Amino acid sequence: LTPAILDDLARACSTAEVGDARAIILSGAGERHFSSGVDLSPVEPDDLPAYMQREEGRLGTAAAALEASPVPVIASIDGAAFGGALELAAACDWRVASRTARLGMPAGRIGVAYSLAGLRRFVSLMGPARARRLFLSAATLTAEDGLTLGLVDELAPPDGSARDAARAAADGVAACSPAAVAAMRSAIAALVPDPPDHAEKEAAAARAAVFASQDFREGLAAFRDKRTAEFTGD
């Protein structure tokens, strides 16, 4: 997920860009992978903390645009869907995955405290206990695990592709009344509560401490060096 991809995605979900479409399918280019997440490769180590926080804002804008899209958005997940890419999938109306998909949220392994807005998406989708399992273990899940945990809504048939299954779902949306779909989608979104004001302040303070920690610097260095991080809690 480069800055250009995230900015383009946010624009693509605008009413003007969507036009007369009845549904949107979000997938990776080709059929190999959905996305491995925010691209850290072109950034120098000393610039990574500021870059990550800036790109977190871009990611949040893109995810919010998916949620606010004028038509339903269906994620078609093949291969890897990690980190910020998994949050984009979580922001969609529902998720269809191939049986070879792999899902993961490696923030803890890198030493990053995830944003409150991002965590809210997963808690709303999976419930708090299952969201804890995803974030606190940083484990990679199979598509079947994702279905069990509520992160995936539908598995593609064994002999089919996620994109074909997502298109079939989109065809079902397109056959319904656009006005009725929009009204019910809006009503369902209104039923999901936002966190209270004090939660935002507490989360911001906790995350600021993590970004200033030695563990954060060690996690980023280990990620760049492709080694296991040695966290100390400092």
Written overview of the protein:
It is a single chain. By secondary structure, the chain is α/β, with parallel strands linked by helices. It has twelve helices and seven strands. The chain has helices spanning 3-12, 15-18, 48-67, 84-91, 107-110, 116-126, 128-137, 143-149, 162-174, 178-190, 197-211, 214-225; strands spanning 24-27, 73-77, 80-82, 94-97, 102-104, 141-142, 154-155. Helix 3 links the parallel strand 1 (24-27) and strand 2. The protein is globular and about 55 Å long. The mean pLDDT is 89.
Short account of what is shown:
The chain is of the alpha/beta class. Helices cover 54% and strands 10% of the residues.
What's the helix count? Answer: 12
Secondary-structure class: alpha/beta
* Rg calculated over all Cα atoms: 18 Å
Sketch the major β-sheet. 4 strands, parallel
What best-fitting shape do the alpha-carbon axes yield?
globular
Uncertain stretches: none
Strand composition percent: 5-15%
Q: List the secondary-structure elements in sequence, H or E.
A: HHEHEEHEEHHHEHEHHHH
Task: Describe the strand arrangement of the main beta sheet, using strand numbers.
Answer: 1-2-4-7
How many angstroms does the end-to-end distance come to? 30 Å
Mean pLDDT: 89
Tally of DSSP β-strands: 7
| Helical content (DSSP H or I, runs of 4+) | 40-55%
Outline the secondary-structure elements.
Blueprint: H1 3-12, H2 15-18, E1 24-27, H3 48-67, E2 73-77, E3 80-82, H4 84-91, E4 94-97, E5 102-104, H5 107-110, H6 116-126, H7 128-137, E6 141-142, H8 143-149, E7 154-155, H9 162-174, H10 178-190, H11 197-211, H12 214-225
Parallel strand pairs: 1-2, 2-4, 3-5, 4-7
Antiparallel strand pairs: 5-6
Helix pairs in contact: 1-3, 3-4, 6-7
